[in-house]
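Following up on my earlier thread - several people asked me to post the actual chain instead of describing it. Fair enough. Here it is, all 98 residues.
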Amino acid sequence: MKIEFARRALREILREARWWVENRPDAPLLFEEELKEALEKIRKAPEAPKVYRVKQGRATRRVLMKTTGCHVYYRVENPNLVLVQCVWGAPRGKQPKP
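Reply from S.P.:
Thanks for posting it. Predicted structure:
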């Protein structure tokens, strides 16, 4: 299973990783490590999480990164490809715009 990232997701990943390095000296790489684990879960069973939202007939799913409180939002594009749409911090108290 190939995983690709939307530009938005890449920006958010870089921003979140930088924040953890700058603000969490006891666990600066926690976000990166937990993201790797989440991506591996997605790769192994992309359709396991329930559908979060359907827009224009396309299902978006999400995986919670429990320790950092971030969600990975993604779509299964075809049997061999997952597109990560965004990575969003759940502690923000609001959902990402579609």
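Helices lie at 7-23, 30-44. That should answer part of your original question.
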